[in-house]
């Protein structure tokens, strides 16, 4: 936290940047400055938001008008000349050998122009040793919903009809869909040998090359100190088991792609969170150089982690386009979206924590496993390992394969699950120690920003007025609970922008980064506008095209962190070029030229101000350009910098029906320098509502006798709606870390990490009963209350 | 969906003729189109009821008997002042069904005839007993939302909240067919799995629901409808209940207690009614009636919780209905 | 467009070819029943004779729809939903299809100012009712107060639910100039948003109502 004095290397300079949390009350946390060594061509330090005009201000989205008028075009809206429509046939069996696939009837359908049989299934675990399995003509079917083949036809109706004519002969194999059944030594094997699912850009997948016994892949071990010793040192201990469910992403726009194969390359319109991941995967699949694959994502209808890479949908669309010699649009049905495009694994967690009587944690022991179907990534150990200071830690995480759709990274993978367990056990410890739950956290949490968040949130939520558990007498019981979040600052250096200033005064930013809905388009406009003294609406932002400078994925909450400094560097370069051209006109050196409030003038003499447009008119060339890539953070901390977040939930429980209603949430969050409070608030709202939905309603249900999902729709897969939305109060802290030229960070994931845990803690406060499983349906609630009454 | 021909008859007679030759009626189309998209039905001929005259109004005769045309939408039903006045439970049930968009299109007739939402029934991949197969998949499967009564053959729950409320107020259906008109009490119209496993009601070929009839409310009839869902926004009920009582001086002369989402048909609880009739309606009698309503329940592995919820909902519905009487002198 | 003679059954028009014969000759096994049914229905329909005067389909039916105030002529099969007709035949892609089952209301349009799910309306059923889509809510270049409020209050994130939400909220304000928060929630109780824009949708709609009340 202290400013480090650094020896400046060549080409470096020492900058003074804002550092700390404005208004912080904890000693040493408040806003100050710190010195960093930065490259000489880096933009100058950016003042705290209070001094800025556009950055840090609530700027309406520059694409808002397009979205509210229906003019924003998404992948499913694309209509190219001669475009064909695809339909996919999927397996209805959870585990089977494919004996034959007869495409003849499908091919003979008058509307069909191309057919394709899937030879390689993407997004699933693959055998480490391929020889563990007999070679086969077709991939083994390992989950119901696995894509088998696809057709492209002149209309969607024709394609659907033709797909229904595909004849597949299966040899059914024994299957297992229940995570507990799958762990048993005699369970049917999902894979005949060890298998690994590669990471996606968003952080899903799991560790590779872990030991595997039967269907159990792992454990991955994370250890520090010695937990046995730690427990001996403890005065109190809490040990409990927790269960969470499988959740599907449920983005409103299903996976889809329009693939346009031309002889010399492939252009695709993709609904994706990472244009470059689509390009890279398609290049590999179609055996093309990456430079011959172009991916466009002007707008996309949500991802939440499931939309990285080309996916099976993209691969099929590309193959069909090549075969048909025409563009092909493939959009998945809602059912297939649930079955095959990803999910958040479930979890079974056994958590034990010990603490001294003065409230210091001495040992954390978490053993957890979960199923990501035919994928991996169920690990829930992040919060236990990283939230609190504890000298002795043991985390063991395992994946259990089942014959179900593969997991994909889902908004803070592992963390909502992990917090659901961790934050409840912390509360239970606090109760045993007769400590305020916030106080216990405070004694073990060295995050300065979360300390502020606890303080501010507690005041806003009237924490001090909370009552003892189960205080309400009548059937409706109300309570308040708290939980903390964490996420990690991730920087992707593959982030670049180009900024063009035209002689006509136009300003444009170009980058391949895509806007997942978080508002990066507007944030980029703000960064550019701030530098040039313009309004965000003056800046044209062209994104989502791999023809533009490479952009980071919209995942891991890394987008804002990664791309905005590149944007700032690029606009700074362009500005310098423009200022150099203006120097002779004003008779001053470039560095003395100010751009502010739409005007350009020498700093020493504002009376000579001309408009930006007039100034641009003096450019010697039709445009000046700046182009920059993200440089590394100004300092490389030894541990990943954490984002925090503290949420207080107030809810009401109808103890006679088991229905829970979340009524009020106070959420205090940080994301470095918030670029746009409107957008940050929206992300926090979204994370909370998704967290409520996860805690109370959502559940991917598989029929154990057939292995089929019984609710692959939006009616029986229950997602929170308007009446489930509580009043939400958000407080966004500025937390300057002095790490980049914008010092801005992401918020998407921290927003959802704590909510389910806070709900569970609130439930306990309301009823005096602990619920340790999700979702907290009326059935679960009534059962917990009844058991408590018996006890 | 399959491709089909649409007939647009201009009279009920014409409609009946067209339907009798393998046509399927289409009212609001909400359930039908869903079934067709899921591959559960592929009718070659749809007989469109939209243009038929006289089916989409609510009227009351001089004696206060209500006639609800079968094509009246759920939205119109929910807002209708006469229905709200005389059979409040019916308006409440309509208002609490589905979503605003669906209520604007779904009709009373279509709602009463819709197929179950059982997720095994609704997925063509499960050839369940109701569809002609051998197994009720819910028995040993995901039966959290299934029936707690009469569930041995088929464990579905009846999907219509409106039916629950209508049966509470003793509604009758007016059916029009090639042989003319007939009336049947809605309570009798629905058939248990033992009586008719595949459809759950009987209509002659081409026969059409043309109206729902609610006889004039006897003085001091109060009715209410209570629904408990997991979500409040667009969710099917975990349990819903309609209670109608005729009260005299705070004493219940006649009661009807109908449970929805409890059985393959709207479930009339005579046990609960017996606890109420001839008694003063108090918290105690309501509690006894509620407990009685669950006698004989045979919950499945995952839906025992419904018993507790029904006990609550029945009790609350009785109290709420009785409270309506408070304003009467 | 094929029509059937009034009173003639669909089966008789295939001149004695039984359904089983048809299936056998087409080589469909038991496993292919769903597909066989589809194809059968289509072939039956296609081979039928002249139809009754009030029957339409199964081939494309010429329709004249009033969409956003303009008569639009299209020809679509009866099974075409209004959502498909708007998106594929009329190029009005603002109306989104998300679940295609009436469960999420992303496809909300107005029929004569009544919000309905376009994915559950057959195009041939629209008749003379005026269709209003998101593109037609406000004149070109202008924003409806609800649209303007959505932008000002940041009620969009990915934007995919937005057209449906806007149509539901604008319909609310057309029938209720002074809605409560509860009224707003009810109006969008069928509109699903995965990004969680609800709080700002409520705020935007209440603000738009206030704006409208200030400028009658």
Computed over alpha carbons, the radius of gyration of chain C is 22 Å
Spatial order of strands in the largest sheet of chain C: 3-2-6-4-5
Globally, the shape of chain C reads: elongated
Quaternary state of this entry equals heterotrimer
Spatial gap, N to C terminus of chain C:
49 Å
User: For the terminal residues of chain B, how far apart are their CA atoms?
Assistant: 57 Å
Q: Portion of residues in helices of chain B?
A: 25-40%
Strand arrangement, major sheet of chain B: 4-5-8-6-7
Strand content of chain C: 5-15%
Name the overall outline of chain B: globular
How large a portion of the residues of chain B is in β-strands, by DSSP E? Answer: 15-25%
- List the secondary-structure elements of chain C in sequence, H or E: HHEEEHEEEHHHH
Q: Report the uncertain regions of chain C.
A: 1-41, 43-51
Outline the biggest β-sheet of chain C.
5 strands, mixed
Number of helices, counting only DSSP H or I runs of 4 residues or more of chain B: 12
User: Low-confidence stretches of chain B at least 5 residues in length (pLDDT < 50)?
Assistant: none
Order of helices and strands of chain B: EHEHEEEHHHHHHEEHEEEEEHHH
Q: Specify the helix fraction band of chain C.
A: 25-40%
